[in-house]
Amino acid sequence: MKLNKKQLSAVRYLDGPLLVLAGAGSGKTGVITNKIAYLIVECGISAKRIVALTFTNKAAREMKERVSNQLGSKKARGLHISTFHTLGLKIIRQELKQLSYKKNFSIFDSEDSRSVLTEIMKVELGDESGKAQEVQWAISSWKGQLVSPEQALSQSDDAQAQMAAQLYVRYQAVLRAYNAVDFDDLIYLPVELLRSNLEVLERWQNKVAYLLIDEYQDTNSSQYELIKMLVGPRLALTVVGDDDQSIYAWRGARPENMKHLNDDFPGLKVIKLEQNYRSSGAILKAANTIIANNEHVFEKTLWSDRGFGESLRVIRVKDETHEADTVASELMSHRFKHRTSYNEYAILYRGNYQSRAFEKALREYNIPYHLSGGTSFFSYTEVKDLMAYVRLMVNNDDDAAFLRIVNTPRRDIGASTIEKLANYASIREISLFAACFELGLEQHVSKRALSSLQRFSQWVVESSDRALRSDPVDAVKEMIRSMDYEMWLRDNSATEKAAERKINNVYELTDWMQRISDNSEAEKSLSDLVRHMVLMDILERNEEDSKGDHVQLMTLHAAKGLEFPYVFMVGMEEGLLPHRTSIAEGSIEEERRLAYVGITRAQKNLTFTLASKRKQQGEWTAIEPSRFLSELPEDNLMWEGLGVEVNPEQQQEKGQAHLANLRDMLG
DNA sequence: TGGGGTGATATTTTT
DNA sequence: TATCACCCCA
């Protein structure tokens, strides 16, 4: 990759902390990868001491790939390119003693955390489990702001926050007892440790000779704190980001961290990358015009030496169904005229549910499509169950895993037995698993229940032992065999097809474990393997998707970082984009950034659609065009489709004419 | 009284 | 597609 002047100066700047303000499509990842190469080759910094952080596994994977293509995998060896969470995990693993966790600790994903919370709430408040999600969100945002349970308690003034804070205290104690951490702890615990222990802090600061951060605008407070701790007085830091693409404020991202950099690092150098290599002039003009309506800390204007290209189109349609039909037929005829392939098109929308109508229309037109952001592999019940089995094998104190699978498949251990066991365990302050072995238990449960429990726990012991003694993946396979899991899945699926799918997922999971185990020299124990998996997602999926010739359907959020020659941005309506809750909250700027992200995904041509009515709460409601459309340069927009009034007959004629047209073209 | 079945309803998502 | 609320039946 050939760098322009600005990019080159960003790569070579080493005199202090650097903020690279990288507009959409300005080659920001290239700057990071080139800088890593530069640090190793020209500055002689050991690869082992360079850390680059991203937010997603995919971004980390791509970055690794690009660096090793550039340098050769030999020179790139030892580089630490990972997500924030993976780095956090690494710190925790190495500092277990300071943190007083045992080395077989579990990582809970959001669903595990929620079920822990639901349990706690059942005990503490009776039955308000419906609110578990809200409390979970509150705890997560506390942790993201480095607020400890005790601080949360003292800060909360209203009753509801007070309640949430008390649940936070309980929750954290329970995690400890389970020897488990949640996702937020992966950042929170390292930061707390680095803050409080000077020796540890210095050790880690010495490990990091240079730190690079991608998508900096997405950092939350705890991540920013981690960055500051690691950088230390050396100030060897490059962050790359674009405040105009900050679309995750609702998740705790703090775009103002961009501003804080200025205060926290007085010598901060700012380099702007404003040349765009992606989009036509018309698209850039639209992007610049719309985002100029936001307040800015750092001003920037994208430009390009590509031609102006085609005007942007706005198509008004009747309703949801008509919108999907229009997009499908526009896409068909465009593809035919320009001899393009399907994967050059993307349909972007605000909410996942909007995809339904498009899926239906695309199927009717026989257009292959791929929907991203569907159910992840790890949310399938059979995968979750199996992961719980493996977790319990590794960490017998993981009560969340125990509860999930103790009676799946059926082992005649019913709810009342579990309750008695839980009571017994909580009085003795031991885990459910440990309680199964206590002699005193027989006074509390029936003889039959006791023998079921003992059979189960004995079986877990055997599985655990096997995992320690023999190959971990073999041990998992043996465990699956010994409980006849496949048979159970067959018997408990609605259809043959569903059973096949589930069994397939089980194989996919074990194959995947095998692959990870084969690929890494460091991670050998089952304990490491399972933690690794919780943080990762199945790689193959993404790769498969980009290979196939499919139209891409996704949310505007999911589209960040991607680009497509031809883009349809649908549902350009008040209430949808900007979303009505954002209008109510007054957070229009974030919605505008979302529109900006959408617009800047397009390379050659961009089409907006909007319906004049949409079904809302079962009622057909008239719809206003999105305010963002009126912010776009007027002479740059071509309005098509329905006028103000809807004449169904005329519409039908038009549709038929279009179909005839299409038939002509296809011969 | 509780659980399962049905129908309506929809911000955005990663780790 | 998933969740949630509501209703009905046991």
Summarize this, please?
The chain is an alpha/beta fold and 667 residues long. It folds into four domains: 5-91 and 197-273, Rossmann fold, CATH 3.40.50; 106-178, Arc Repressor Mutant, subunit A, CATH 1.10.10; 303-373 and 547-666, 3-Layer(aba) Sandwich (Rossmann fold), CATH 3.40.50.300; 378-542, PCRA, domain 4 (Orthogonal Bundle), CATH 1.10.486.
Characterization of the model:
This protein has 667 residues and is an alpha/beta fold. It has 4 domains: 5-91 and 197-273, P-loop containing nucleotide triphosphate hydrolases (Rossmann fold, 3-Layer(aba) Sandwich), CATH 3.40.50; 106-178, Arc Repressor Mutant, subunit A; 303-373 and 547-666, P-loop containing nucleotide triphosphate hydrolases (Rossmann fold), CATH 3.40.50; 378-542, PCRA, domain 4 (Orthogonal Bundle). The protein contains 32 helices and 17 strands. A hairpin with a 2-residue loop joins strand 15 and strand 16. It starts with a helix and ends with a helix. The model is unreliable at 644-651 (pLDDT under 50). It binds a DNA duplex (15 and 10 nucleotides) through residues 55-57, 83-86, 88, 107, 109-110, 130, 182-184, 186-187, 218, 247-248, 250-251, 350-356, 373-375, 534-537, 555-558, 576, 579-582, 590, 594, 616-618.
Question: Which keywords apply here?
Answer:
alpha/beta, Rossmann fold, Arc Repressor Mutant, subunit A, 4 domains, DNA-binding
Low-confidence stretches: 644-651
Secondary structure class reads alpha/beta
- Our Rg estimate from Cα atoms comes to 27 Å
CATH class of the largest domain: Alpha Beta
Describe the main β-sheet briefly.
7 strands, parallel
Shape: globular
Number of strands: 17
Tell me the fraction of residues in β-strands, as a range: 5-15%
The amount of helix comes to 40-55%
EC number: 5.6.2.4
Protein name: DNA 3'-5' helicase
Organism: hydrothermal vent metagenome
Family: Belongs to the helicase family. UvrD subfamily.
